[in-house]
Design brief:
Strand content: 35-45%
CATH superfamily of one domain: Electron Transport, Fmn-binding Protein, Chain A
Number of helices: 3
Largest sheet: 7 strands, antiparallel
Order of helices and strands: EEEEEHEHHEEEEEE
CATH class of one domain: Mainly Beta
Shape: globular
Length: 176
Protein backbone atom coordinates (compact mmCIF):
# COMPACT_ATOMS: atom_id res chain seq x y z
CA UNK A 1 0.00 0.00 0.00
CA UNK A 2 1.44 3.38 -0.94
CA UNK A 3 1.64 6.35 1.39
CA UNK A 4 -0.97 9.08 0.96
CA UNK A 5 0.23 12.10 -1.05
CA UNK A 6 1.62 15.12 0.78
CA UNK A 7 -1.05 17.77 1.45
CA UNK A 8 0.02 19.92 -1.48
CA UNK A 9 1.09 17.10 -3.83
CA UNK A 10 -1.81 17.84 -6.19
CA UNK A 11 -0.95 21.54 -6.38
CA UNK A 12 0.69 22.28 -9.69
CA UNK A 13 1.34 25.77 -10.95
CA UNK A 14 0.78 24.81 -14.58
CA UNK A 15 -1.92 27.49 -14.71
CA UNK A 16 0.67 30.30 -14.72
CA UNK A 17 1.27 32.93 -16.07
CA UNK A 18 -1.16 35.05 -14.09
CA UNK A 19 -1.64 38.79 -14.35
CA UNK A 20 -0.05 40.15 -11.18
CA UNK A 21 -2.07 42.90 -9.51
CA UNK A 22 -1.47 45.14 -6.53
CA UNK A 23 -4.17 45.17 -3.86
CA UNK A 24 -4.50 48.09 -1.48
CA UNK A 25 -6.35 47.68 1.79
CA UNK A 26 -6.56 50.89 3.80
CA UNK A 27 -3.01 52.27 3.24
CA UNK A 28 -1.31 48.89 2.87
CA UNK A 29 -0.37 47.29 -0.46
CA UNK A 30 0.40 43.71 -1.50
CA UNK A 31 0.82 41.88 -4.80
CA UNK A 32 -1.85 39.30 -5.66
CA UNK A 33 -1.95 36.82 -8.51
CA UNK A 34 -4.90 34.77 -7.30
CA UNK A 35 -7.78 36.94 -8.48
CA UNK A 36 -10.45 36.55 -11.15
CA UNK A 37 -13.60 38.28 -12.37
CA UNK A 38 -16.63 36.09 -11.65
CA UNK A 39 -19.56 38.22 -12.86
CA UNK A 40 -20.14 41.10 -15.30
CA UNK A 41 -23.58 42.06 -13.99
CA UNK A 42 -23.25 42.67 -11.15
CA UNK A 43 -19.52 43.23 -11.66
CA UNK A 44 -17.61 41.06 -9.16
CA UNK A 45 -14.13 39.70 -8.46
CA UNK A 46 -12.82 36.93 -6.24
CA UNK A 47 -9.43 37.58 -4.64
CA UNK A 48 -7.55 35.12 -2.40
CA UNK A 49 -5.39 36.48 0.44
CA UNK A 50 -2.71 34.46 2.25
CA UNK A 51 -3.69 33.79 5.87
CA UNK A 52 -0.29 35.02 7.09
CA UNK A 53 -0.68 38.40 5.42
CA UNK A 54 -1.26 41.54 7.49
CA UNK A 55 -3.76 42.75 4.89
CA UNK A 56 -6.12 39.90 5.78
CA UNK A 57 -6.83 41.46 9.19
CA UNK A 58 -7.12 44.90 7.59
CA UNK A 59 -9.58 43.57 5.01
CA UNK A 60 -11.71 41.86 7.61
CA UNK A 61 -11.74 45.11 9.58
CA UNK A 62 -12.63 47.62 6.86
CA UNK A 63 -14.39 45.38 4.31
CA UNK A 64 -12.95 47.10 1.25
CA UNK A 65 -9.93 47.09 -1.07
CA UNK A 66 -8.73 48.32 -4.45
CA UNK A 67 -7.30 46.06 -7.15
CA UNK A 68 -4.64 47.81 -9.28
CA UNK A 69 -2.99 46.85 -12.53
CA UNK A 70 0.39 48.48 -12.94
CA UNK A 71 2.65 48.40 -15.98
CA UNK A 72 5.76 46.27 -16.40
CA UNK A 73 8.04 49.21 -15.57
CA UNK A 74 6.62 49.15 -11.98
CA UNK A 75 7.47 45.47 -11.49
CA UNK A 76 10.19 45.91 -8.88
CA UNK A 77 8.04 47.99 -6.53
CA UNK A 78 5.03 45.71 -6.95
CA UNK A 79 7.09 42.59 -6.27
CA UNK A 80 8.97 44.16 -3.33
CA UNK A 81 5.58 44.88 -1.75
CA UNK A 82 5.28 41.12 -1.28
CA UNK A 83 8.57 40.91 0.61
CA UNK A 84 7.99 43.83 2.99
CA UNK A 85 5.56 43.98 5.88
CA UNK A 86 3.13 46.80 6.50
CA UNK A 87 2.46 45.83 10.12
CA UNK A 88 4.76 48.43 11.65
CA UNK A 89 5.67 50.66 8.71
CA UNK A 90 3.99 52.54 5.90
CA UNK A 91 5.05 50.08 3.22
CA UNK A 92 3.42 51.99 0.33
CA UNK A 93 5.33 55.19 1.08
CA UNK A 94 8.56 53.32 1.73
CA UNK A 95 8.29 51.73 -1.73
CA UNK A 96 7.46 55.07 -3.36
CA UNK A 97 3.79 54.50 -4.20
CA UNK A 98 1.78 57.72 -4.27
CA UNK A 99 -1.56 57.11 -2.60
CA UNK A 100 -4.73 59.14 -2.95
CA UNK A 101 -8.18 58.64 -1.44
CA UNK A 102 -10.43 56.23 -3.30
CA UNK A 103 -13.58 57.58 -4.91
CA UNK A 104 -16.16 55.20 -3.41
CA UNK A 105 -14.31 53.68 -0.43
CA UNK A 106 -14.08 55.06 3.11
CA UNK A 107 -10.68 53.81 4.34
CA UNK A 108 -8.81 52.52 1.31
CA UNK A 109 -6.42 54.53 -0.83
CA UNK A 110 -5.57 53.97 -4.47
CA UNK A 111 -2.17 54.07 -6.15
CA UNK A 112 -1.67 56.97 -8.52
CA UNK A 113 -0.49 56.01 -12.01
CA UNK A 114 -2.01 52.52 -12.26
CA UNK A 115 -3.20 51.33 -15.67
CA UNK A 116 -6.57 50.45 -14.09
CA UNK A 117 -8.02 50.38 -10.58
CA UNK A 118 -11.12 48.55 -9.38
CA UNK A 119 -12.53 49.78 -6.07
CA UNK A 120 -14.05 46.81 -4.22
CA UNK A 121 -16.34 46.12 -1.27
CA UNK A 122 -16.38 42.73 0.39
CA UNK A 123 -19.61 40.93 -0.34
CA UNK A 124 -18.66 37.70 1.39
CA UNK A 125 -15.72 35.76 2.78
CA UNK A 126 -15.89 32.42 0.97
CA UNK A 127 -14.64 30.01 3.64
CA UNK A 128 -16.01 28.52 6.83
CA UNK A 129 -14.47 29.55 10.14
CA UNK A 130 -12.84 26.11 10.51
CA UNK A 131 -11.35 26.02 6.98
CA UNK A 132 -7.60 25.52 7.18
CA UNK A 133 -6.59 26.45 3.63
CA UNK A 134 -3.55 28.71 3.28
CA UNK A 135 -5.53 31.44 1.44
CA UNK A 136 -8.88 33.06 2.20
CA UNK A 137 -11.02 33.87 -0.85
CA UNK A 138 -13.25 36.94 -0.81
CA UNK A 139 -16.09 37.81 -3.15
CA UNK A 140 -16.05 41.54 -3.93
CA UNK A 141 -18.52 43.89 -5.57
CA UNK A 142 -16.87 46.44 -7.88
CA UNK A 143 -18.11 49.86 -6.77
CA UNK A 144 -15.94 52.14 -8.93
CA UNK A 145 -13.50 51.77 -11.84
CA UNK A 146 -10.58 54.05 -12.75
CA UNK A 147 -9.61 53.48 -16.35
CA UNK A 148 -6.12 54.13 -17.60
CA UNK A 149 -4.19 52.33 -20.30
CA UNK A 150 -6.17 49.81 -22.30
CA UNK A 151 -4.71 46.41 -21.25
CA UNK A 152 -4.25 45.20 -24.81
CA UNK A 153 -1.94 48.15 -25.54
CA UNK A 154 0.08 48.04 -22.32
CA UNK A 155 2.80 45.82 -20.90
CA UNK A 156 1.14 43.78 -18.13
CA UNK A 157 3.12 42.35 -15.26
CA UNK A 158 2.81 38.56 -15.49
CA UNK A 159 3.66 36.17 -12.65
CA UNK A 160 5.16 32.89 -13.88
CA UNK A 161 5.46 31.24 -10.45
CA UNK A 162 8.03 31.40 -7.67
CA UNK A 163 10.21 34.46 -8.48
CA UNK A 164 9.78 34.59 -12.24
CA UNK A 165 7.98 37.39 -14.07
CA UNK A 166 7.43 38.45 -17.67
CA UNK A 167 5.44 40.74 -19.91
CA UNK A 168 3.91 40.19 -23.32
CA UNK A 169 6.17 39.77 -26.31
CA UNK A 170 4.64 39.04 -29.67
CA UNK A 171 1.02 40.09 -30.07
CA UNK A 172 -1.59 38.93 -32.51
CA UNK A 173 -5.21 39.95 -33.00
CA UNK A 174 -7.65 37.40 -34.36
CA UNK A 175 -9.70 38.71 -37.28
CA UNK A 176 -12.60 36.36 -38.16
Amino acid sequence: MSAPPAPNARYYSGFYPMHLALLSVARNVLPVAWWTPVSKDPFRFVVAIDRRNHSLALLRGCGEAALHFLPWRERERVIRAGYASGRRRDKASRLGFELEPATALAETYVVRGADAVFELRVRRELVDADDDGDHVPFLFDVVHVHRGTRPATGEPLLFLGWRDFATLGERWRFRP
